[in-house]
Amino acid sequence: MVLSRRWWDRKSLQIGLIVLALGSAWVLRQTQGTALLEMYQGIARPLQMLQAGPTPEERLRDARSLELQARITDLESQNQKLQNLLGYVEKEPISSRPIPARVVGRSADHWWQQITLDRGANSGIKEGFIVKAEGGLVGLVETVTPNTSRVLLISDLKSQVGVTVSRTSAKGVLRGDASAEAVLEFYEKVPNVKVGDFVSTSTYSQKFPSGLAVGRIKSLDLKKLPASVAKVELFPPIRSLDWVAVYPKPENPIPEGENPQPTNPQPQKSN
Fold first, then answer.
1. Among 73-77, 104-108, 201-205, which stretch is predicted with the lowest mean pLDDT?
2. pLDDT grade, residue 138 (50/70/90)?
């Protein structure tokens, strides 16, 4: 009896495993593995969901959230720019406050030549009006429709602006260079200027009032013939214009049509 009990104690675990294996085999045969498959799927499904990533619904929800965040960021940026412009406009006398306008058109082929504004004749804008932005002079209104205006930028190759060097009053003509810089041709052969001097519109300009900030001298070529020239870094953000201010053109008592020559020691009127 004692020997039988000892034998059973030693073999009971093995016998139990054999019975379990035979029972499992019988169940698999009867169910064709359905129960085991369901058990496996129950264990594996959470792992598969983790590996598969978000569902289509979750991806759509995330995309909408990112879109809203982008729109909010853009609106906050536009709001700040508009507030800056309105603060700039409010500094002007009430009688001469400009018309705020936004850039709504700009061709890649004419990026440095012209822009289109969302205000036109219905807002009181006319041809010849002055366009400024933070930093200074941007350009001149060329054509107007009831609801839009096209502006010739000072960076246009055909743009010419009469300017002066603030420190020494040396004068010349600023010509667009289809970039964020412009070329300044001086009236004097050897002008009293240096790198870093500030440049603004001069009293010789026909189309712009004097004293409008334009830029800073970046480099000089005082040996250039027939007149010395300078590269001017433009102050207004010409490459990324968004909001601008449009001013009425100034009254000009001096007749149009006089064309200054860079080598003329007695400069006449320029644009």
1. 73-77
2. very high
Provide the pLDDT confidence category of residue 223 given band limits of 50, 70 and 90: confident
Separation of alpha carbons 179 and 185, rounded Å: 17
3-state secondary structure the chain: CHHHHHHHHHHHHHHHHHHHHHHHHHHHHHHCCHHHHHHHHHHHHHHHHHHHCCCHHHHHHHHHHHHHHHHHHHHHHHHHHHHHHHHHHHCCCHHHCCEEEEEEECCHHHCCCEEEECCCHHHCCCCCCEEEECCEEEEEEEEECCCCEEEEECCCCCCEEEEEECCCCCEEEEEECCCCEEEEEECCCCCCCCCCCEEEECCCECCCCCCCEEEEEEEEECCCCCCCEEEEEECCCHHHCCEEEEECCCCCCCCCCCCCCCCCCCCCCEC
pLDDT at 180 over 50: yes
Give yes or no for a contact between 186 and 168, defined as CB atoms under 8 angstroms apart: no
pLDDT (0 to 100) of residue 105:
93
Judge whether 270 and 162 are in contact, CB under 8 Å. Answer: yes
pTM for the model stands at 0.62
Mean pLDDT computed over 197-204: 92
